[in-house]
Design a protein that fits this description.
Elements lengths: L2 E3 L8 H5 L5 E2 L14 E2 L9 H5 L5 E3 L9 H10 L24 E6 L3 H10 L5 E7 L7 H4 L6 H4 L1 H9 L4 E5 L9 H7 L2 E4 L5 E2 L12 E3 H8 L16 E5 L3 H11 L12 H8 L5 E5 L11 H8 L5 E4 L11 H8 L8 E5 L2 E7 L6 E9 L5 E3 L6 E4 L2 E4 L3 E2 L17 E2 L2 E4 L4 E8 L2 H4 L7 H18 L13
Parallel strand pairs: 5-6, 5-8, 6-7, 8-23, 10-19, 11-12, 11-19, 12-14, 13-14
Antiparallel strand pairs: 1-4, 2-3, 9-20, 15-16, 16-17, 16-18, 21-22, 22-23
Bound molecules: flavin-adenine dinucleotide (FAD).
């Protein structure tokens, strides 16, 4: 009875290191790891020992016989990954232990932010017996998007908070909640009391939609909507008008699917989740019957992942419909095959996926009443461009949410790359673009380092790389002792 990885996989690679026969791929040392939509178990090589089940922090791995009906597609997905890959090494990668030069002192590291990137960095640093970590978090609750982003009905994924809590409870970790670096304490002050400062501040804003009417009431970012239903203090006071029949979500990633699902799922199925009570009350009173999720490109270019699509298609009470225009016939692409199998709507609350439509204008007198799109076609290199002479497409809508990507913001006293919305760095060392030199004792990790990509677990590998750079610098004598010791 081999095992299969299912939807809630966060890609942290714990299972890879636990597996005695290296049957879980891709491994974190493989360049494919960062881009993989999930990890996969080779059914031909799995010895059914269950080590991966125990290692997975979010219960994503199940023996075949325990798969729910809606999860059986993952059997095929796991097996298909290995259909043409029989050349994997028989031994899983071994992570080298950090080797720290003994200087007869304790090492103090400050980490700014407490999301997964911060906590994985702390976990790695705490493997050094003489290291102490202080985590500074601007909110009064820790763990970043694990609490403020991951959808409340993704119960298994949210369990990763338990793993982060175990890291927090380490005796050499101090967490300072409600301290915003750059406002309550400066970069300079952190430097004065720590050998090194690691910024793990995430990507807290979103890319704005630049079309006329985007400022009308009723148009909002998915960031605000997600923050609202997850009780993020910055957004808890917001109100969303759900008294109209249709909402439109612009964007085609997993966040777009999350917000569409929360708007259409039976609110009673959310009662046992951590959803904000005000959001649950608003969803109970909601009049929304259809959410249209609109992408500028075709279905084959959708950035949502196959596991999320499977999960959405299996959500009770939601009809998922795909507009055939933009869904190419390609049975080798499991996403397209699934989209083409979807039935017509028959009257329930539904999510409609539409493609090849670029927002042109949001209409409304006092507030949003609808949105106008320009039909697109793809050029040979896959770029969308307007179809010459085509009619605009109009959709009535009382709520428009934009989910077109997250973006980092500048931190006081640190360089910032406006183009990518990240802090410029080389292997996690912050680089001053004026000189091309590394800023002393300053590092980055997570979304602010590499942009808003990957899963929660992707930040683990990212954190290990940054901490390896920090330790190299320490060993090379580049991290001078702080002027005054970190106050614990
Ligand atoms: C809506 C949404 C849903 C997602 N769902 C999933 C999912 O289901 N599964 C999955 O694997 N991945 C999911 N992800 C991706 C995952 O959440 C990210 O990969 C991960 O959270 C990025 O980690 P981070 O630590 O870089 O940033 P964050 O998680 O954003 O953490 C940054 C932290 O820094 C703090 N901070 C910011 N500025 C300061 C400051 N000046 N001083 C002190 N603290 C500060 C913030 O308050 C925050 O706590 C989702 C992402 C989003 C946006």
């Amino acid at each position: 009875m081999p095992h299969a990885v299912t939807q809630s996989c966060v890609g942290d690679g714990s299972c890879v290191y636990a597996c005695p026969v290296n049957c879980i791929q891709p491994t974190p040392d493989d360049p494919a790891f960062e881009l993989a939509e999930m990890l996969f178990i080779d059914p031909a090589a799995c010895v059914d020992c269950g080590a991966c089940v125990a290692a997975c922090p979010v219960d994503a791995i199940k023996p075949h016989l325990y798969l729910e009906e809606s999860e059986r597609a993952f059997l095929e997905i796991n097996a298909a990954h290995f259909a043409e890959r029989r050349d994997r090494p028989s031994l899983a990668p071994v992570r080298p232990r950090l080797r720290v030069r003994d200087r007869g002192e304790r090492i103090h590291v400050a980490i700014v932010g407490s999301g997964p990137a911060a906590m994985y960095a702390a976990e790695e640093i705490l493997t050094i017996p003489v290291a102490d970590v202080t985590v500074y978090e601007r909110l009064d609750r820790p763990y970043g998007l694990v609490r403020s982003g991951v959808a409340p009905d993704h119960r298994r994924t949210r369990r990763i908070a338990g793993q982060l809590e175990r890291i927090r409870n380490h005796p050499r970790l101090t967490m300072r909640l409600g301290v915003e670096v750059g406002r309550d304490i400066s970069h300079e002050a952190l430097h004065a009391s720590h050998h090194a400062v690691i910024y793990a501040v995430g990507s807290i804003t979103d890319r704005p939609l630049d079309v006329p009417g985007a400022a009308l009431p009723g148009v909002s970012s998915a960031t605000a909507f997600v923050g609202w239903y997850n009780g993020h203090p910055d957004f808890a006071g917001r109100a969303f008008d759900l008294s109209h029949r249709r909402a439109v979500v612009i964007g085609n990633g997993n966040v777009a699917l999350d917000v569409a699902r929360i708007l259409t799922v039976d609110p009673e199925s959310l009662t046992d989740t951590e959803i904000a009570p005000a959001a649950l009350a608003a969803l109970r009173a909601s009049q929304i019957e259809e959410v249209v999720v609109v992408g500028r490109r075709a279905a084959a270019q959708s950035s949502f992942t196959l596991p999320e699509l499977i999960g959405l298609a299996a959500t009770p009470g939601i009809e998922l419909v795909a507009d055939a225009a933009g869904v190419e016939a390609d049975d080798h692409d499991p996403k397209l095959a699934l989209l083409r199998e979807l039935g017509p709507a028959n009257g329930g609350r539904r999510i409609t996926l539409r493609y090849l439509l670029a927002p042109a204008e949001i209409n409304g007198a006092e507030r949003v009443e609808g949105i106008r799109f320009t039909p697109q076609q793809l050029t040979e290199d896959g770029a969308p461009q307007p179809v010459a002479g085509s009619q605009h497409v109009h959709l009535d809508a009382g709520l428009v949410l934009t989910a077109i990507g997250y973006r980092g913001t500048a931190m006081p006293d640190l360089p910032f790359d406006e183009q990518t919305g990240t802090i410029p760095n080389a292997e996690g060392r912050v680089i001053d673009p004026a000189t091309g030199e590394a800023m002393p004792r300053t590092y980055v990790v997570g979304w602010i380092k590499r942009g808003p990509t990957g899963f929660i677990g992707t930040n683990k590998r990212c954190a290990q790389d940054t901490v390896a750079a920090l330790v190299d610098d320490y060993n090379a004598g580049a991290l001078s002792p702080p002027a005054r010791l970190a106050s614990a």
